[in-house]
Amino acid sequence: MLYLGNLSKSYGNFLAVNNLSLHVPKGDLFGFVGPNGAGKTTTIRMLCGLLKPNFGTIHINGYELRSQSEAVRRCIGYVPDFFGVYDNLKVKEYMEFYGSIYGISDSTIRKMTGDLLELVNLSDKQEVYVDTLSRGMKQRLCVARALLHNPELLVLDEPSSGLDPRARVEMKELLMNLNSMGKTIVISSHILADIAEMCNSVGIMNRGRLVTAGKMEDILGLGRNEHHLIIQIRSDMDKAVQHIRELPDITVASVRENEIMINFAGTDEDVNRIMISLMQQGVMVGGYHREESNLETLFMQLTGEQPPNLQNNMAPQNAPNGMPMQNMGMQSAGMGNNTMQGGAGWNA
Description:
By secondary structure, this protein is α/β, with parallel strands linked by helices. It is built from eleven helices and 14 strands.
């Protein structure tokens, strides 16, 4: 569905997106996460045709954005981070206005308006002025607007920003419902718990680069390579800490009143050997449990000062139609104050 090949974008000397390659398959609900300034919004605006990259290629549903922009735009429904509404219009008039922009017939607009407002739970607001709606309702209205031309790809930039908890849940349920109906969805968000719960694939950006991307279960599995093991100690805490520090391939992460947290990459059998070893030293062990990896802890790990060099499991090896992806990365000589010269795929 979505292919980004060696995509780069600079603003003067600032490299906002650096050689990004990504593949989002049809039917995925893809979460795009990263710190502020990581390049998420710039990437989203490029794939929606609102910004022109300095280098790279964008293919959506088999169409190449530079040469087939009209076909690509028909495939995309876009909900920006700061959405625009016309306050002097009623909800029904708002939908009719945008339907006319898409060139949809009046009869089709009326039917689509009713169906879409029901889908986003606003069917009882058709005669209500847009400026009286809550922020959550306005956001759902913008989703309905983006679906008017029945796009195959829905792109949302921070759709839950500023929403109260109830509105967040409603937005999350709406997106999951749309995905179950066959829509491919790309969503940028800082609310990692929501991303982890509703998305089946995820990409993490940091400083303009895609640190890692892939299926959610595979990405979360990266954080399980080293276990965070918490051991409850009932007696002889000092002896327990000293003994654990003498064991190979184990790091003591923290010591609390009755607990020792260790970083350990061994198997379950290795964990059992640690427990037996402690008890042989006369330490009374009350039990142990693993601290499960989640998207938030992994995000903090991967977006540190020196993120690990992890494989991008969703990077396309070939562009659509078998065309090899060429290396169109940024050249340091092109990083002057002037606009960079376009490379293969795009001409600035």
